[in-house]
Amino acid sequence: MIRILTALILSLAALPALAHDYVAGGLSIVHPHVIATPPNAPVAGAYMTIVNTGDDDVLLSVEVPETKAGHVQLHETSMEDGIMRMSELEGGIPIPAGETVTLESGGLHLMLMRLPQGLADGDLVPATLTFQEAGKVHVVFLVKDRDIATDHGGHGG
Question: For 123-139, how does the pLDDT look when each residue is reduced to its tens digit (9 = 90+)?
Answer without folding.
Answer: 999 999 999 999 999 99
